[in-house]
Amino acid sequence: MERPIAVIDSGVGGLTVLHELMRQLPKEKFVYLGDTYRCPYGSKTKEQVREFVWDIVNYLLKRNIKCLIIACNTATAYTIKELQSELTIPVIGVIKPGGRAAVNVTRNKKIGVIGTEGTIQSRAYSKVLHHIDPTLNIYSLACPPFVPLIEKGIIQEQEAKQIITETLIPLKDTDIDTLILGCTHYPIIKDLIQKVLGPDVKIVSSGEETARETSSILDSFGLTTVNSDMLSLNHEFYTTGELEKFKEITRLIFNENLNNLNEVKFNNAVFS
Amino acid sequence: MERPIAVIDSGVGGLTVLHELMRQLPKEKFVYLGDTYRCPYGSKTKEQVREFVWDIVNYLLKRNIKCLIIACNTATAYTIKELQSELTIPVIGVIKPGGRAAVNVTRNKKIGVIGTEGTIQSRAYSKVLHHIDPTLNIYSLACPPFVPLIEKGIIQEQEAKQIITETLIPLKDTDIDTLILGCTHYPIIKDLIQKVLGPDVKIVSSGEETARETSSILDSFGLTTVNSDMLSLNHEFYTTGELEKFKEITRLIFNENLNNLNEVKFNNAVFS
Question: Which of A100, A131, A224 sits opposite B216 (nearest CB)?
Answer without folding.
Answer: A100
